[in-house]
Specification:
mainly alpha, MetI-like fold, 20 helices, globular
């Protein structure tokens, strides 16, 4: 079993290594060391770090009052629907958000006239708005779960000691949040640092370019392999080092639902309750506005004459790719966790950390570099017009594996803590072990599969390299509509994709809550 896991880890790592080999092997390309002293390179690196740092900081700061409102006021109206909206906002395809933001805040946006003549969505403001929108809901849920881990005894002791609001915040609430803040910041930073679609669509020019977009521009427009390699290694070094540090600190808990148990906690005063309701309502409105902004664009389209077949085919293609990639990612993640579980059981902490990093290394490998590197490597060997969609599925599977690993790992490690000694004493084979594990893991696998579907459906970068004219996905169709200023058609396609994602979120929430209750 461990051998199968090592093979899965080697396969994932081999794809990344082969992609870089493809770039290096093309025309004997080497690193362009002259770029390291170039002002453009310094500005790209600095902007990449600045926008990721600001995005992560804003997401965490703005999430804190929202998490407190949800924690101290469990009776908020439509609270569970709001938490479902948070999941949807975090995992929905980026192009839905971009279409909504352009309709809302673009040059002809619905509320742009009220923002003044100097307002411009494109550039750092638009990037920060999009990144905060995508990551604030995740930060809210993580901080809420951390607050819910405060034991009742702490609050009861605080009540007996008659601690004030500031003392409770400093002595009880902040210590519960502090341990997870740095890992949470690091994770959101890595996501924003590696962001591609948001910066490509809303960057607005060379002054707002990140390493990922600079790699894309070097490959697509200049086909400058040495420059792309230098940028790619820089990105991998920065993001990889931070992610390795993040793993050492311990990752944040992922998209679990909040606890349904009623905790004993201080009841906020009337003024604080009103403030909580205001924060809650403002956040819900901010999350809904970009989605509601799609409606006016849809109303401009004659739906009776709309060519629904033009989006039905891409929608089915997206679902098929997502289903295959999600299933493969789930199986691959389970196999990758086998060596990690073995190392933890044997008490080999360093080896377990290595396996943990290898299972999630796809998060820091630049998606554009992996796609183009493999394309260059395979182009002389295969007819990529014929086999291209296979690699769209394969690369999507590998890029979402880290999320599957994070979803399955806590449940599998919990199983090992409870039953590993019994399983070993009974000397169960692979088939018998899987029969024992499956009832324990069934709900976690279903929720993970729903999450994998959501993540795989939003791909644009990989399809832009390996996609063919015979097959079109829904996100790529939206990108094409928006690029030709057909915002009505883009809004219709975005709404359809949003409805599919909302269905997946409902499935995720339904089975996740059932898992918790079980």
């Amino acid at each position: 079993m461990v051998a199968a896991g090592l093979l899965a880890l080697a396969f994932s790592l081999a794809v990344t290594v082969l992609a870089f080999c493809g770039l290096i092997g093309f025309d004997n390309a080497r690193l362009d060391t002259r770029l390291l002293s170039d002002g453009y390179f310094h500005s790209v690196v600095w902007f990449s770090i600045k926008q990721a740092g600001l995005s992560a900081l804003l997401a965490l700061i703005l999430a804190w009052p929202v998490a407190r409102a949800l924690y101290y006021s469990p009776g908020l109206w439509l609270r569970q629907s709001f938490l479902s909206l948070c999941v949807l906002s975090f995992v929905m395809p980026t192009l839905i958000l971009i279409t909504g933001l352009v309709a809302l805040l673009g040059r002809q946006g619905l509320i742009s006239p009220w923002l003044g003549p100097d307002w411009n969505l494109y550039g750092l403001p638009g990037i920060l708005i999009a990144h905060v929108y995508l990551n604030l809901p995740f930060a809210v849920r993580v901080q809420l779960l951390q607050l819910q881990h405060i034991p009742d005894s702490s609050w009861k002791l605080a009540a007996q000691l008659k601690l004030g609001a500031w003392q409770r915040l400093r002595l009880i609430e902040w210590p519960a949040l502090r341990a997870g803040m740095l890992p949470l910041f690091g994770f959101v930073f890595v996501l924003c640092f590696n962001s591609f679609a948001v910066v490509l669509a809303l960057g607005g020019g060379p002054r707002a370019t990140t390493l990922e977009v600079a790699i894309y521009q070097s490959l697509k427009y200049d086909f400058n392999i040495p420059e792309a390699l230098t940028l790619a290694w820089t990105q991998l070094l920065i993001a990889g080092s931070l992610f390795l540090l993040l793993n050492r600190l311990g990752g944040s808990q992922w998209l679990g639902v909040d606890s349904t148990r009623q905790h004993w906690k201080p009841r906020p005063g009337a003024a604080m309750q009103r403030l909580h309701r205001l924060v809650y309502a403002s956040t819900a409105l901010a999350l809904l506005l970009p989605l509601l902004a799609l409606v006016p664009g849809i109303l401009q389209v004659d739906l009776a004459r709309f060519d629904w077949r033009a989006i039905a085919g891409p929608a089915l293609t997206s679902l098929l790719i997502a289903a295959i990639a999600g299933t493969g990612a789930l199986l691959l993640a389970y196999a990758m966790l086998l060596p990690l579980r073995f190392a933890r059981t044997e008490g080999r902490t360093t080896l377990a950390l290595l396996f943990d990093w290898l299972s999630t290394q796809a998060l820091v490998a630049p998606a554009m570099v992996v796609s183009v590197g493999l394309y260059i490597l395979l182009l002389p060997q295969l007819d990529l017009d014929y086999w291209g969609m296979l690699f769209v599925v394969l690369l999507n599977m590998l890029l979402i594996v880290p999320y599957a690993v994070q979803q399955l790992r806590p449940r599998l490690l919990q199983f090992d803590r409870q039953y590993e000694r019994l399983v070993r004493s009974l000397k169960l084979g692979l088939r018998a072990r899987l029969r024992v594990e499956w009832p324990y893991m069934r709900r976690a696998c279903i929720t993970s599969f729903a999450l994998m579907l959501l993540l795989a459906m939003g791909d644009v970068a990989i399809f832009s390299i390996f996609g063919t004219s015979n097959w079109t996905t829904l996100p790529w169709l939206i990108y094409g509509y928006a690029g030709t200023y057909r915002m009505g058609e883009a809004s219709v396609a975005s709404l359809l994709l949003l409805l599919i994602c909302a269905l997946m979120v409902w499935l995720f929430q339904h089975f996740e809550k059932g898992q918790q209750d079980a």
